[in-house]
Each structure stands twice: as C-alpha cells, then as structure tokens.
Input
Amino acid sequence: MSDILIASTQKKQSPRLRGATEDTAFARALLILIAILFLLLFLFAPLAVVFVEASAKGFSAFLDTFHEADALAAIRLTLIVAAISVPANLIFGLSAAWAIAKFSFPGKSLLITLIDLPFSVSPVVSGLVYVLVFGAQGLFGKWFSAHGTQIIFAVPGIVLATIFVTFPFVARELIPLMQEQGTVEEEAALTLGASGLRTFWTVTIPNIKWGLLYGVLLCNARAMGEFGAVSVVSGHIRGLTNTIPLQVEILYNEYNSVAAFAMAVLLASLALVTLGLKTFLEWKYADALSGRSRRH
Amino acid sequence: MQTRSPVAQEDTNMKKHGFSIKIEGVAQDFGAFAALRDVSLDIKPGELVALLGPSGSGKTTLLRVIAGLNAPDRGRVLFDGEDATYLPVQDRKVGMVFQNYALFKHMTVADNIAYGLKVRPRRLRPSKAEIIARVEELLRFVQLEGLGVRFPAQLSGGQRQRVALARALAIEPRVLLLDEPFGALDARVRKDLRRWLREVHQQTGLTTIFVTHDQDEAMELADRVVVLNEGRIEQIGTPEELYDRPASPFVISFVGEAVALPVTVADGHVNFAGRELHIDTHGLRSGPAKVFFRPADIAVASKGNGEIEGRVESLRRTPAGMRATIAIEGYDQTLEIDSPVEQAASLGEKIPLSLTKARIFPADVPGFDNIADGI
Output
C-alpha cells in the first residue's frame, strides 16, 4: 500500500529535485536579464557615450583638447589637490583607525559616527560650510586675508573641501580590519625587542597593507572626481581654480562637447583603472587576510 | 612526534641562567574591576611555576605585568633583585608565548623566529649568517627542521605552538612566560606538549611561568602552583601541598573534587546533623562552618562507629567494583563511594560512614562552587 503511494507521488514530481529556495528557470533568467539590461542602460551606455563623443571629430580633435592651457591647468590642479588630500587622509585614516581599533576612550562611538559624516552630508553643503568658515566674511576668513592668504576661491579651499569629502575612505576601510586583528601581534613584536616604530612598519603595516591600498585608491578616485563641494569653493577661475570635473562642466556649457568629453575620458579612465585595481586587490586581499599568501 | 624524544638532545648551548622574580604588593584596576589586589610572590631562578585560577582571577594580568605589557597601578616587580617595574618591555629579556601564539602571519616560520634578532640595534645584531645558523638551531630544537619556509597558516596547532616557543627563545630570554600554552590544542597534542614543555624547561634552565585554568595541567607540570581567585593569591605551594594542605575553601574546591558539608561549631566540637564529627577545629570560633573533604577521604565504617549516616540510593557496577550513590541526611547532594564487589552494601541500606581526612573553614569564606562565574 505505502509502496504504491510513494510511487504515485514520485510520478507527479518534476524529474529534478528542487531546493526550497531555488527559483524556477524562468525567474532566474528574468532576474539576470533585468540586471544586465539595467547595467547596460545606466552604466555601460553612458560610459560608451563618453568615449564615442570624445572621438566624434577624430582623434586629433581629441588630442587638441589637451593642448589648451586651461585644460592643462585643470589637470595640474587636480593632480595637486589629489597629491595633498590623499596623503593627508592616509595619515588621518590610519591614526583614526589605530585609535579606534586599539584603544578605548570616551567618545569613541561619536568619533566613529563623525567619520561617516562626509558620506551623509551633501557635498554642496560641505562646500558652503567652508565658504562660511573661510570666506571673506567668514569666521577665520578675515584673519587669513589680513595675513595675505586666500582660502576660498583659491587652491587651499579646494584642497580643504576635497579632504573633507574624502576622509572616510581610508578610515572606514581600516577600522574593521584593525579591530579584527587586535594588538596581539604588536605585543609579540614588542616582547621580542622591537621598538614601537619598528613594530608599526614590520608588523602593523604588512597586516593592513592591502586594505590600506584599497582605501587610498577609492580616496584618490573620489579626490580627483569630486564636483559638488569643490564647485562651491572654487569660484571657477579658468586656468587657476578649475579642476577636471569643473573644466568638463564649463566646456560642456559652452557647447564644446568634444573637449568636454575628452576631459571626461580622463576621469572615466581613472574610474576604470581604479575599478580594475580594486577587483585585483579584492582577489589578492582575501588571500592576504587568510594568511596564506606568499611574500608580495 | 609521540615516539621521538620531545627535545633534540644534542643541544647543550640552550642552557641559560634564569632570573629570580619578586613581585611586591602588585595591584591593577581596570576601571571599577580590580584585576589584581596586592599580589606578592617570590619565584626562584629556574623554577617552573603555574598561575592557576578561573577566568577573571587575574592570572593573565599578572603574567602581563611580569612581561611588561601592563604597568601595575601599585607595587613593584624585581628581576634578580633589580626593580623592573617600569623597565620597557623590550629591555626585559622576557620570552612570551601568547595564547593563540600571535605568530606574524605575513612572515615565514624562519622570519618569525629571526624577528627578535633582526630588530636588535646594529651593534648588538648578529650577522646574517649567524641569524640563519641560530634559526636553524632553534628549528632543530623544536623539531621543525625543514619547515622554516612555511607560513604559519600552513602549520598545525602544535607546530605553531613550537614556532612561538622558538621565536621567544631566539632572544635568549631569562624568563619564559606562557599564556594558556595548551588552551587551543586538542587533548592528545596537549599531553605530548606538556611533557615536551617540561623537557624544554629542564634543558633551558629558564625561570618559566605559565598561566592555566586547568588544574591537571598545573599540577602535572609545575614545581609550584600559585592559585589565584578574584585578583588575590589564595595559596602558593607544591602540588602536594595544594592537595594535602589546601589553605582555603576555594583551593580545596578548585583543585580537585571536594564535598562541602554544612556544620556548626560549638566550643571546639563540630556538629553535623545531630552527630559529632571528630575534626580538629584549630581554634575556629563557634558558629556555622563548612567541612570539606575529597570523595576519596570518606569510607564505610564498621557498625556503630560512623560519624555520618548515609543511605544507599543506587548501585552501579564499574570495572573496579561497585559504585554506590549515597544520600546523606542533612546534605542536599549525593556522593559516590566505590567498594569491592564482595563488600558492597545493598540498595536502601543505611550505612555508617567516617571521614579519614577533612578540613574545616568558617562558612562565610566562599569555596569555588559558591563563585558564580565558574571556569
């Protein structure tokens, strides 16, 4: 009797046993299709347009963009801003992560919250805050202008705004990593006679190097590409306070689309290189975290 | 590993003079929590000492104070008679083996062992060739020849333990400190490593202090055992002294099994459930008290001679004989007594029992069972 019952229920079932959480082939195909279409439409197509538009009038027209003095000035300024703000955030991020992961002190959770602030505040607002603080009528603006230093509508303001916007990247990358690793390897190094600095270079840094590099990459990509905050404090003075993103906007507003897209190609390429390196690091970094990697 | 001699015998230059360690009134608080309260301890050169206690007893804190990883709030630490309380950890000549070994995971085994030599100031640093030779010697000493090129993640727990020891010995320490050295290993490897550590200690002659919560480990390995509880030393003694002359209810109940009977003391007489127990009260004041004894120290007495009356609740055959579970009037737990098959009592029978050895303490001094957090 029971044999017959089992046989009959087996017949009704589909030939392949399916897990409870496994979707039908149709649902899976649909979900994959939606994801791919979405990516094509909103990510890949715009990226392709940047490259296509930049070369719309031929390769020489594309290259001509970079002979313009203003374009070169924008590139130089972007590099200067990144060269100052990335190391600054590297040092800040490392110290903040060190403090949070390795000591306990009052106000620690407040510090962790504050580190995230630039992510939750609109970049335009952070730019405006700098104008209010350092502008000609601002809190410290008078003191600075009395001493012959201009912050707002000048390079220092752009650097400050960029530092503000990009400071969570390194710290956020390192805090969980350093918390997980604790201090025991450092303590071991100290008992073996290593100085604090030596311990830092030979034990702490090798343990966090991939995470650190990853954070620096993201920080750099954002520092070079930041528009909102920089736009507010820069004043858009051609050849002086325009970074690449600001220069793109100006060129575009002047209907000089080839030049605008040519500059945009630089930023897009930066994004692609960052993405490539990030993927490589994620692959490498998972390996390093498990402690199995060979010497790098 | 089990069959080979645990330590390579040919190494004779491993022998070093160990420091004596004196700890005077050391105390340390972490916020409101007193990790150590007025701890004093003398350790002789070359002694092998265990710090034994439940978690939160302060044993690891004491080890870290000796290592120089914690600065005590009060008190002094002396190495060979010299004040080392504020000596930086780097200058202490202390070899430390951490609980989970704390090997540098980005370095090979050989680089791990060489680390302490490589970080020395230039004028004290051995040449590259000397460092390589020393690493080879240490790898041989801990029986890991040929594994120098591996990374810590490629080793077993027991092997990592030995790398950690080789790394600590590389700096030619005068004191060897081990924090729960066998805690992370499975039972069989533990046993082998215990014997091995004992031999390492004999070969190196180092003053060695290890932390453990396992009383068997402490009793088997150590020359002397320091029993800690709630930041205080309960007793310092050889394993024999701890077993035979426990100084407090905590020690008798933490080190080995113990039964505690609630009694009252009146004018030097001990009264339990209406009968007198013949125990020397050594001047204990009158009032409630507790009698502690080991399960082995209670025996069936001849008729009419028992101080305690028990009733056989159940009987079970064991390889050695019969094990009787006995309920005692006036005591809410049962105890088990083994006896030869021929002499076994029958179920439900009332039997007289007497104590061959017991200790009595005032009732307000807590034993280990009365302490909430356990091990």
